[in-house]
Specification:
Elements (H helix, E strand, L loop, with lengths): L6 H17 L3 E10 L10 E4 L2 E7 L5 E8 L1 E8 L6 E7 L4 E3 L2 E3 L13 H15 L4 E5 H6 L5 H5 L5 E6 L2 E7 L8 E4 L2 E2 L20 E7 L14 E6 L7 E11 L4 E15 L4 E13 L2 E13 L6 E29 L3 E24 L4 E25 L3 E26 L17 H4 L7 E31 L2 E25 L7 H9 L6 E2 L2 E5 L13 E2 L5 E2 L7 H11 L4 E2 L8 E18 L3 E23 L8 E26 L2 E12 L3 H4 L3 E4 L4 E4 L7 E14 L3 E22 L4 H4 L9 E23 L10 E24 L5 E11 L7 E11 L2 E10 L2 E4 L8 E3 L2 E12 L3 E8 L6 E5 L5 E6 L3 E9 L1
Parallel strand pairs: 1-7, 1-8, 12-15, 32-35, 36-39
Antiparallel strand pairs: 1-4, 2-3, 2-5, 5-6, 9-14, 10-11, 12-13, 14-15, 16-17, 16-50, 17-18, 18-20, 19-20, 19-49, 20-21, 21-22, 22-23, 23-24, 24-25, 25-30, 25-31, 26-27, 28-29, 31-32, 32-33, 33-34, 34-37, 35-36, 37-38, 38-39, 39-40, 40-41, 40-42, 42-43, 43-46, 44-45, 45-48, 46-47, 47-50, 48-49
Subcellular location: Cell outer membrane
Main location: membrane
InterPro entries: Beta-barrel_TonB, Beta-barrel_TonB_sf, CarboxyPept-like_regulatory, Plug_dom, Plug_dom_sf, TonB-dep_rcpt-like, TonB_rcpt_bac
């Protein structure tokens, strides 16, 4: 299908609008704000409906505001309902084509005739439940109150408290979200409904660790999108909400200091300032906030290397042999700065807004590695210094115009992400003696290698150094407009028709360059060039003056505190000095030789997506609503990259590089149907059918190609790679009771077509011509392909309750628990090889496939938190369980890589003093849970990362 926009959808809308307009009587508009009568803020998710027509209603937004159009003129009785609060009925007089304002304050309800205790944690839970129940889509909510209660250090960790959501960690900190087992690149991240630009170097994922939770007024996770939502959200959409100014002027100051026990480090800090007010007779609202923070994310990393041995012909099991042991001590400082502003201006029938967001995370990392490889290089000492900077800029203008029968809203936004990595320098030093005990089994468990090593530091010399610099920028622009027409055809039959268009462009540039020297070990002109560039006394190896000694990169007395998997201290043989390594790079950078192979990693992207949709919601009485619709998206994309062929990237032997470009255009029609049925006042049943898609990774679809004529290998993107189409089926059942909470169970199934996966194949039997490499017959091609079908399915349970109806002291308990069981089937490709020696030595490869689970899919996810409030004291303990998951599939199934299951526990306490001041203590990972990866079986551990327990203590002043 290759039509740019479905013009017939606009025609249908016009017919519906005109028909409904002729049937509608004189109407007006009702607006207002719903607040908590206890003075704790507004109530999002409140249901507001006409008593005379219970099918006609609206829901208050994240700020507690509501707008009801198409209200019949005259005296009307309006019902305001919020789960856990007393229902309130108010009479209002509606004037034709005019705005009537009615603000309402609701009070907490009693349960079983007993007065309940209204606690901060119970109120936050009630807000999330109401928003979830009144969402038109199947969704999960984290309220602003709960975000502030939990000791989450960034937005990714806050999202991961929800059912079916797990996270990928980096440096012991949550980084990217996995929704229902779909990798981060398959999920959409938005702020106030505006999509964030991707900030990964190669795919479409977003690093959420750069957003501080203090910026947010709530988090919404939509798991079954409506037609008016972005279709590129296979797992789901995470929407981050920024604060809007309430009627009362507020100022908040928050500060904390912290420590990391793994590094014996005290010096973490965070400072937050927020201010909001309304001016010009409350017509203009302003919220400005900022935070600065620094955290130590250093850790101890233990690595075990394994290789493939022989395969038993009877069982088919391949033996695994130990190859190396790696001890890595990592020091890392992360600095995060966030600022946002949110402006709104209302004139009655029109509201305008602007929000801006600036977020920056910088990382300074230095890793020292002692590596023991008895069958390889012997003993090597490595130092890696990394400076990185990740920045997000976003600005958006919005408008909402309310007429008596229509609501028109629009948005125009610009955003940019920039990932800058100017310093990624590695220094490699070789111990020249290869000293290991003669009795060592060199294929045994790598844990044996350290005790058998006998290093001789006097023989260690500089072998190589390299720096890889990269910069990735992505600019997004977006404009969208929606028109909604409410109707009230018959008593008990009302709803709306909605249509709209959206246009988004993406401009991405990735620049990669490298410099290095691989031949210091040859001495001669290689080390002489380094000596000439060095300002100082360069120490040579005593046994060979041509070589550069290890002594240039260590300081006497330097040491490393390192902890193994069992918590035992391990002595490092060599602790390379960060300042000396950095000084070496600063003096050598101009004489390091250009790595020409990095040119193939540069690429450019220009993508545009034009979308149109049509949907209608039919409220049939108070019990049933049906929402059919469709969405159409048309993509027009172009990609720029290069084709590289070099015999050696440093020496400068024969090779070439040339630019290339490709283009793709396609359209996708996506039908939807959503049904919500409430057979009882306490029961909510939802069925959803939705179609979504995913576009390939930038690195997968760009025409970059690297040809190695020595190894007869080609690494290439696939410009013909198709986008992924997914049909989503959802069922959700929720039982709820005011003051008691909510229990929900859901099941889902995703039918996936054309998932894109890596594939290796030998260019034989016409494949060279078919794949576009006719002159490279017999080469091994590493590329990417579509596989026809995959599926993801599972079920989720969620319990949110409090015991506020119980007598003291039990009435302060608040409980949140959820469990998800996820399944999937997809395909990975792998090679088998056969060696021939007649008539000449050669190797033939055959491409095969096997069924596996989705990478990054956690099969079992448990979230548990128990909170307790007593007067001005609050405490919470929370745990997250993630089952063992596969992260990478190898050419041999025995070398698939997994992350071991774990429980991670956090705790927080808060004490309020007076009306404005609070003190708090947060402890993260107090059980010192380690991040462990392995291959095939748990006995073949490949990596153990220890980041320890962290704690913060601080104060907050709110006026």
């Amino acid at each position: 299908m290759h039509i740019k926009l479905p013009g017939y959808s606009l025609l249908i809308c016009c017919v519906l609008f005109c028909t409904l307009g002729s049937l509608q009587a004189q109407v007006g508009i009702l607006k207002g704000t719903i607040s908590d009568g206890e003075g704790s803020g507004t109530l999002p998710g409140t249901t507001i409906y006409l008593q005379a027509n219970s099918g006609k209603g609206v829901v208050s937004d994240i700020d507690g505001n509501y707008t009801m159009t198409g209200v019949p003129v005259g005296r009307q009785t309006i019902v305001y309902s919020f789960l856990g609060f007393e229902e309130q009925t108010i009479e209002v007089v509606i004037t034709e084509n005019d705005v009537t304002t009615q603000d309402v304050a609701l009070s907490f309800a009693s349960v079983m005739g007993q007065e309940v205790l209204v606690t901060a944690q119970a109120l936050g839970q009630a807000k999330a439940i109401n928003q979830q129940l009144n969402s038109e889509s199947i969704a999960n909510i984290v309220s602003a109150d709960r975000i502030q209660e939990l000791p989450d250090v960034n937005a990714a960790e806050a999202v991961a408290r929800l059912p079916g959501v797990s996270i990928n960690r980096n440096g012991g900190e949550g980084q990217k979200v996995v929704i229902r087992g779909l990798e981060p690149k398959f999920n959409a991240i938005t702020v106030n409904g505006v999509r964030l630009p991707a900030n990964s170097g190669t795919d479409r994922s977003v690093d959420l660790s750069l957003v501080s939770p203090e910026l947010l007024d709530g988090i919404e996770v939509y798991k079954s999108p409506l037609p008016d939502m972005d279709a590129e959200a296979v797992g789901g959409t995470v929407n981050l909400r920024l604060r809007k100014a309430p009627k009362e002027e507020t100022t908040l100051l928050r500060g904390l200091v912290g420590a990391n026990n793994n590094n014996d480090y005290i010096g973490d800090y965070k400072g937050v300032v927020q201010h909001s007010r309304r001016i010009l007779n409350d017509k203009v609202g302003v919220v400005a906030q900022a935070n600065v923070e620094r955290f130590n994310r250093g850790g101890d990393i233990l690595g075990y290397g394994w290789s493939q041995g022989s395969t038993d012909p009877g069982t088919g099991v391949t033996s695994i042999l130990g190859t190396n042991l790696r001890l890595e001590d990592r020091s890392e400082q992360r600095r995060r700065n966030n600022a946002s502003v949110n402006l709104d201006y209302g004139t009655g029938k029109s509201e305008f807004g602007f929000f801006g967001l600036l977020s920056n995370t910088s990382r300074s990392q230095f890793t020292v590695e002692n590596r023991y490889a008895p069958n390889g290089d012997g003993i090597t000492y490595n130092a890696t210094g990394i400076d990185s900077d990740l920045t997000l800029y976003m600005g958006a203008l919005t408008g909402t115009h309310t007429l008596s029968k229509y609501t028109i809203d629009w948005v125009a936004s610009l955003s940019r992400s920039k990932a800058d990595n100017p310093y990624n320098f590695n220094l490699n030093i070789l111990d020249g003696q290869r000293p290991f005990d003669a009795g060592l089994d060199r294929n045994s468990n790598p844990a044996n290698f350290l005790a058998a090593a006998n290093p001789d530091l006097s023989t260690a010399f500089l072998r190589s150094s390299a720096n890889r610099m990269s910069e990735t920028t992505e600019d997004n622009s977006e404009f969208g407009i929606n028109v909604q027409r409410s109707f009230n055809l018959l008593e008990g039959l009302s709803g709306y028709v909605k249509t709209g268009v959206r246009y988004r462009t993406i401009e991405r540039e990735r620049s990669v360059s490298g410099r290095g020297e691989n031949f210091y070990f040859l001495g001669g002109r290689y080390t002489q060039t380094a000596r000439d560039a060095f300002n100082g006394n360069l120490i040579a190896l005593e046994a060979n003056p041509e070589l550069i000694s290890l002594a240039n990169f260590v300081e006497p007395g330097d040491g490393v505190d390192f902890e193994d998997r069992d918590g035992e201290a391990v002595n490092f043989d060599v602790a390379l000095n960060e300042d000396l390594v950095r000084n070496w790079y600063d003096q050598q950078r101009d004489v390091l030789r250009i790595d020409r192979n990095t040119a193939v990693d540069n690429f450019g992207v220009s993508e545009s997506v034009a979308a149109a949709y049509l949907m209608a919601k039919f409220d049939i009485g108070k019990k049933l609503s049906v929402t059919p619709g469709f969405r159409y998206e048309y993509s027009d994309n172009s990609y720029r990259a290069g084709i590289s062929s070099f015999t050696d990237p440093f020496i400068g032997l024969a090779g070439s590089f040339r630019d290339t470009a490709t283009a793709q255009t396609y359209g996708e029609f996506m039908p939807h149907l959503h049904i919500k049925y409430e057979p009882k006042d306490w029961l909510d049943v939802r069925l959803s059918y939705a179609t979504t898609l995913a576009r390939p990774d930038y690195s997968f679809v760009s025409p970059r190609t690297q040809i190695d004529d020595n190894a007869l290998v080609i690494d290439a993107g696939n410009p013909n790679l198709r986008h992924m189409r997914v049909v989503n089926y959802d069922l959700s059942i929720s039982a709820y009771k005011g003051g008691l909470g909510l229990f929900s169970v859901g099941a889902f199934y995703k039918d996936i077509e054309d998932i894109f996966v890596p594939q290796s194949l030998q260019l034989v039997d016409g494949l060279a011509e078919e794949r576009g490499f006719p002159q490279y017959n017999q080469y091994l091609l590493n590329t990417f392909s579509n596989f026809p079908t995959s599926k993801v399915y599972g079920f989720e349970f969620d319990v949110q309750t409090n015991l506020s109806f119980l007598p003291a002291p039990f009435n302060g308990l608040v409980i949140n628990a959820n469990y998800a069981r996820l399944f999937s089937e997809t395909t990975t490709f792998f090679l088998t090889r056969k060696n021939f020696f007649v008539p000449f030595p050669r190797t033939e490869f055959t491409s095969n496939s096997r069924t596996v689970t989705m990478p990054s899919q956690v099969p079992n996810i448990i979230n548990l938190s128990i909170g307790y409030d007593y007067k001005s004291f609050a405490a919470r303990i929370s745990g997250v369980y993630q089952g063992t998951k596969a992260t990478e599939y190898g050419q041999n199934k025995d070398f698939d890589r997994f992350v071991l299951s774990y429980w991670r526990w956090d705790a927080s306490v808060k004490q309020k003093v007076g009306d404005h001041l609070s003190f708090f203590l947060n402890v993260n990972n107090f059980t010192n849970q380690k991040d462990i990866t392995f291959i095939r079986e748990e006995q073949f551990v490949s990596r153990v990362e220890t980041y320890g327990m962290t704690g913060t203590i601080g104060a907050q002043y709110k006026l």
